[in-house]
Amino acid sequence: MTSRTPIIPQNLKLLVEERIHDDGLRGNIRRATHTSLGKRAAVVEDFPRWEEMRTTAHDIKKHVMDNLAHYLELFERQATEAGAQVHFARDAKEASSIVCGLAREHGERVIVKSKSMATEEIHLNPALQQSGLRVLETDLGEYIVQLAEEPPSHITAPALHKSRGEIGRLFSEQLGIPYTDDPEELTAIARRVLREEFLQADVGISGVNFGLAESGTICIVENEGNARLSTTLPKVHIAVMGIEKLLPDAESLGLFLNMLGRSATGQRITCYTSLITGPKRSTEPDGPEQLHIVLLDNGRSTMHADPKLREALYCIRCGACMNICPVYQKVGGHGYGSVYSGPIGSVVTPVFMGEQAAHDLPFASSLCGACADICPVRIDIHHHLLDWRHRMVEGQDGPLLERIAMRLFTFTALSALRFDLAGRLARLFAPFLKHSAGGMRLPVWSETREFPNLPEKSFKQLWKEDRERS
Amino acid sequence: MNARDDMMKKLSLGSRMSADQRIADLQHLHDRLRDLSGGDLAELIPLFRERLLANGAEVAECRDGSEIAEALESILGDDDRIVLADDARFADHDIARKLSEKRETRRVCLSDDGNLAPENGGWKQHYAGMDAGITFAVGGVAESGAVIVHASPGESRSMSLLPMHHIALVSAEHLHATLLDAAPLIASLSQRNGSSAVTLIGGPSKTADIEKVLVTGMHGPKRFTVLIVHQLPAGQQDSSTPLSHHTEG
Ligand code: SF4
To answer: Which of A394, B15, B27, B179 holds its CA 20 to 30 A away from the CA of A36?
Structure first.
């Protein structure tokens, strides 16, 4: 399998352009996001106090972030005492070289991986392949995009952009089997192929959904069972965990599990929630002999030091903000050109990739606020986007025409008389302009829209008339 | 400076609370969690059953140990080769013997010292081609519709994962109303002298990665059945596990 090149959000317009005209893609994304949202709404109703749960979840995350050094140290101590080996990585390069080193030491045959955004973030697969290792994604969606040599397009549904026909053709080409587009059959084929690989693998790599400081436990949430297989069958398990994943204890975990499954896929609980504490005990029949936990910083401590951005570290990667986002629904995850897509992706990517590379991302939002309303940990996502916009345009001038227009507007709007006069003039001339040859046009905007008619009377006039009548 | 100290130093600059403040703050959060936990769900068994079914699990019930063998017979159906947990309770009422009359039955452990032969993944072969794995759950969570299993000398991780059918026996007395009520049990199992793998299982393995069409049996069992036993004797595992919360609700 060849390594895929990471895409970057620099050419955001181009990326979006390509996708917005792809009707098939838009249909797939719409179906998928709406299914998840519908199911979510139904199971959130189980909890009449959902809004309080969100506030509590927010406050627990705040508590952890305000004491992050303490909880990280506690986690390290407890995990180590349970027999795990804990590694620290300042950035993506350090993390991937730690994992590659461990994998080279233990992985002669094949490395099985379960879905993990952190390993995408550190571009682990290309690094492993460069080390001459064969690495296999085992989550069905990830397996599909790996076969297609594409990056995943959604946190919880990586192949969301592909139709069954496309997947059928892909399987038939890559695996040399007769074509079928039946999801049941395609799934059975993937199970057979991947089970063989699981039984051969010497190293399993996973991400982590939550880390429990109290006991040094890592918690992995999934539906397929591939994370359980990856962390059970190979003799070495390597878990890559962002340092923001910490929770104090099992009690907090109870709340977060109740919210994660519901927010992500509309499930009350995912099929499997694995709580792993250290490697296999000597008296236990099976499990890995070694457990390595790689704690990843990669910009998180920078976010942590920023009083505003710190809140972005509360994210539990449920994907709800993507599903609800009107922009995401149109262009999908690849439209953003970054590992973390959607509204929260646009908040964190400038930190991971640099403001320069991610310059356009905070602008790829309508700031409608639907993301902040649905977020289970109450991150004020759209305000963070607004904040980034401020930071990015600070000290920069807009285009000349825009500056002149804004000056004119300021001049007009500062006096009631001038504002009134301008309104009258506009209402007088607008009908002629609209029907003249060129019409009233704004570049780009007018390509798909009619210019609206101006109302006959101004608000001020209407107000006055209304007062006089009553 | 090494990576660890570097990261710790940066993070401690932004970690402002004193130990006392931190403990008080966490205490306060715990109070709020307990207030939210809603452990007053009166009828746990019907809710447990309803939620399990909604998650795609199958559910059966029986009265006590004397009915387990018969209940398992009908749950197993065509499953010919089964793996049983090493649990003394399978010797009661001849359960293990009755089951093995009609089908190939294996125990978790291969050797006398209580361990599977680890070399060359010998234990992996042990499960190859097995149709069903039967385990004892240490608890159930009614609101979520899930059971709690854990790796122990008598129960492997694989037996609930590799076969196409997983059957979990759970005592009605070990039902918890919500995940928050089950938290103390989960915490005590996950201690460093506890189990390396505690797993909440809420349904059969499944995926919806192809056009959101739901398909079961992606990597793990295609069938997941919970057998609720109204009066199940305590196992060896249970005595070491504080279950102070299990009667709540
Ligand atoms: S920002 Fe909130 S809604 Fe979006 S993925 Fe993170 S936790 Fe979920």
So the answer is: B179
